[in-house]
Structures are given as C-alpha cells and as structure tokens.
C-alpha cells in the first residue's frame, strides 16, 4: 500500500490580450474562453518513511524554468524539505491554446510579448494549490497499471524524417507513431476511485493557430469527459476525482489525422518540404477528422478518453515497491558523449535552424521558409547578422548540417535567449519509472530513450521496469530528434537546439540516473550547476489595462443582442452583453467564473446552475472596441440529452473605474439574458 493524494486547481490566468503559447504566431492572442485550464497533482507517499513522489500535469504549453523555480520556492516555504527538485515532476500537456508570458529566456519572451506576471502567477499558484489539495487529501490506497493501443488519433507529421532512421530499427515497430497509452489507476483502501494518469503521445493541436479562445485542446477534453463521468452531478472543474492526460514523446505526432493539404487547391502536400506548388509552404496545413477544429478536438479527445476508460476499468496489475527519485542539473551546451570506448562527441551551444521558422503542418510559419532546408537563405541571414550577430564558426560546425537562423546560445541581451542548464529527472514507483524530459522527443527518440533506461535498470538487477516518458517537464528545450532525423532538418530537427548529439547526451544522462536508482546511490549524484533566475523586467508589449467604459445610456452587463425565445437541442443559444476587459477579472478573483447557464426549477421557483465557463458546451468571446469599450458574446451549444425547460445565460465581469486621480477601482457586475425555452429535437 501507498499513501495517495490527488488535487486539481484552476491555472487559467488572463484570457484576453495575452499571446497564446505554442504556435509562436504573434497574431494569436487570447480573446475569450472555451474551457478552463487546470493543474492536476498526484502524490504517492511511502507510509513507512518520508519518501514521496509528486507528479503534476498542467494544462499549459510546457513547463518553463522560471515556473518550476518559483513553484519549488513556494513549496519549500510551505513544506520544508518534503517536496524538492528531485521528487517533484512538473509536466505540461502541451496545449497550444493557453496564455504565454511565463518564461525568462529571451526567445520565448519575444514570442509572448514579455514576462507577464499575471499569467505566470496564475500558473504558479494553480500548481501549488493543486499540490496543497493532494497533500491534504493523502490516504491509504493502491495503484494499478494498464496499457493498450489508441487507434485513429495520430499521424507522424514528419514521416520523411522518420524514414531516415535505420530500416533494421524501423522494422521492429508496427507504426511511425507510438500508439500505446499507459494508464495509472488510483483507488483508496475501499476500492473507491481517486484518480488516473494517462500518458499518450499526441500533440494537442486539434485547435489551430486561428483560434483565440483559451482551452486545453484534445487531451483537456479527455480529462473533462473522464472527470464529468466520475464526479456525477458536479459542475465541470468540481468533484474529487482527478483525471490527467499527460504528454509523452509527441515531438513528431499530430492529431490532424487527415494529413497535410494545400488550403488553396486541396491537393496533398505530404512531401519532404511540406510545400504546395502554388503558395509554397504557408498553404500546407494538416486537417483533423472533424468538420472544424472544435469538432476535431472533440473526436480526438473522445477517442483518447474512451481508451483510457476501458484501460482504467480493466486494470488489474498492481504497482508495488519502493519509491525512488534522481535528479541532476546539466549544462546541455557542453556534454561529452561517449559513443563507444574510443569515440566521443559534444553537444553544442543552443541554436535554431532555418526550418524552425517554417513551423509545421499543424501551424505554418509567418514567412516563406520551408521545412527540410539544409541551406541558409542569404536574405534572412543578412538581416539576422545585422540585428542579432552571426553565429560563430564553432557553433556552425557543431550544428552541421543545420543552417543556423538564430544562434541563441551566443545571444545574451538582455538575458540569455535559451537555457544552458537543464533538468534531467527520473522517479520510480515500484516497477514504474517516470522519465521526466525537458522538451519534445520524437517517436523514435522516445523509443531509444525508454529502451536504454529499461536496459540500464535490468543490467543492475531491476528487470521488467515499466518506463514511461513524461514530456515537456521542468524546462523547455524545444525538440529532440534522433541523429538520423537531424540530418533531414525538418522543423523538429531545426529545433533540436543542442545539436545532432542531443539525444545521445540525454540517453547517457538518463542511464546515469537509472543506474543510481537501481544501485541505491541517487543521493551521491552530483547535483550539477544551479539554473539562473534572471531579474526580468516587467515591461511587456501587452496593452495596459485602461478604464472600462460603456456606451452612453448603457451600463455594464446590459444585453445588446438578446437570445431567441425558443431553441431546440443541438442549436446554439447566443447573447451579447456590454462587457469589460476579462483581464480585470483574472487579476481580481482567481476562481472567477465568467458565465453560467441556469435552468428554472419550478418546484422551488429558483434557478439552478447547470453549466459554467469550464464547460466545453459554452464559449465566451470578448471583443475589444475603442476607448475602453468592449462586448462579450456568450454561446451555449445545447448538447444532446439537455433536459427540456426554461433556461437563462448569465455573465459575470469586473470593470475598472477611476475613483480618484491616483486610484482605479475594480467593480464586479453581472448581466442576465431573457429566459428561453429549450425543447427536444
């Protein structure tokens, strides 16, 4: 038996005007909310001693170093040495529709318009709160493990790179993606459900880069379905059962299963450059299985949920044994890798290649860069040399055949552009080893890493370990491709920032951690160089919050466009209000709900809340006008199975007003639609 605790907390942050993190598209800023973002925490403790493992999966693009350091600092202040860098794993689901701005390295700082405190604070506080909840709810329980295959939910988005891997290696696998899902089921002593962690490799990019609504994408929808099923009768985001759908080696894995097509001509662009004969690379986009991105998100999310539910219900193999953790900080820009007894190679200072700017078939770049470029472009190189300085000969040679676009490891103004110091970490729970990786391993990179770790354990008396890769943990270092995939220089390879031997270096490092755990010497591992904490300025390019204003003879929360009197199930009820900037709400009330859908209860003559803004059936749109004016439109996509009756939609906001010359106050307000009738089809 273990002691088990689970917790969930909101980490949504500001849903307006903040760049969304993932596609690096400066146009893609938040403009509302489709679903809330949550941090989900799981604590496994040894009842005999103080050993603990904490696994957190948060609905964010990735965990940044800044975020991790701030969370660890808060945990230390609260719990002393109970929760530390070696036994706390922080993993991001990799949704591309969450607010950015929580990074200290300059490259990410540029794409998300600075270090945005409200965004960083919301995630730090949400993660800590989810761990607090799990800590307070620790009780005796059991962990069961199960694994199975998920079909029709992924494609390899760089299949030509995958083909660069040796044929003898590829022949050992049935597919160019990892279709396996691993599920951990947690129950208490009575067998009551506590929670689940699922690891499955797929990019949460069913929502594309034209989306402006904050949401947790396909894996978040899977969490929502599972939690709604287990927390019967509760509103979304409420109830004690916690279901995390965590990321894994998803580097080259897309959920857009119809594959890449030219949006202008409809022809396939499944070629090594992902380019179209007219319009070039910017026209090549992968399509999901649905009619639009909302439907695709639901289809993929539901596939993942259904497989997890089946594996959860049928799980019978119990996880037993001691808890161990191992962690090191490593300077990834200068690791010496021993390929064999006579031959060593080096990792490089971080740099991004030209194909980084091309983006992928899930989200193309802003300019006419193409994937698979092993030649530089004199035009862009000239601009780069002028603005940012050209890469040194040493870095050029180290990264070959990558043509360097940004030599980030040699750029330090106003702070370094990329991390040098990176976390490597493994936690074991009995026969389960969670390998926490700082980025996006491709399918084959992940297979090689898992196999190496498994072998290392076996050669030191621990055969048959279940090794899972937890992606996007602790610090973000982009992609990790195999040496062979690196030669093709598609997007993932161009974004393998420490050069062609990055994977070999990680395999060497993680084998060292596995060996230390297997031989009980983890406490003797050198901790490595501590990561820096920069004093990043609070100046951002996010518009400053102004005083909100309503139109003349209107007040905040007034209805501008009323609902219809009558809707059928599957129609969309829609209402528009005089609104205010939702950022004012995020900064004034953490668990703020922007909306409710309420049903009239004739027996008690009151209104019962049936949906909130965490529901995937509601959409909250904020439209900015001029001079501090704005509108809010709320949609309720009435789901099948909705009980007929009388309903209304309510909006809750905060407006900022000037109380005196020096003092701006935030005032809560609400608006309510007229009642409307919902009838069955």
Automatic annotation (TrEMBL):
One GO process term, biological-process aspect = long-chain fatty acid biosynthetic process
| Domain Neutral/alkaline non-lysosomal ceramidase C-terminal residues, every copy | 511-678
Out of the domains of life, which is the source? Eukaryota
**If you read the UniProt record, what top EC class would you report for this enzyme, in one word?**
hydrolase
Look up keyword Phosphoprotein and say if it applies.
Answer: no
One Pfam family, please name it: Ceramidse_alk_C
Query: Which Gene3D superfamilies is this protein grouped with?
Result: Neutral/alkaline non-lysosomal ceramidase, C-terminal domain (2.60.40.2300)
Q: Where is the Neutral/alkaline non-lysosomal ceramidase N-terminal domain?
A: 2-508
- Tell me which cofactor or cofactors this protein depends on: Zn(2+)
This entry's Enzyme Commission designation comes to: 3.5.1.23
Question: What keywords are annotated for this sequence in UniProt?
Answer: Hydrolase, Lipid metabolism, Metal-binding, Sphingolipid metabolism, Zinc
Q: Name one GO cellular component term.
A: extracellular region
Carries keyword Hydrolase? yes
Q: How is the cofactor bound?
A: Binds 1 zinc ion per subunit.
Q: Where are the catalytic residues?
A: 254 (nucleophile)
To which protein family does this belong?
Answer: Belongs to the neutral ceramidase family.
By its UniProt entry, which PANTHER family does this protein fall under?
Answer: CERAMIDASE, NEUTRAL CERAMIDASE
Q: What is this protein called?
A: Neutral ceramidase
Protein's gene: Asah2
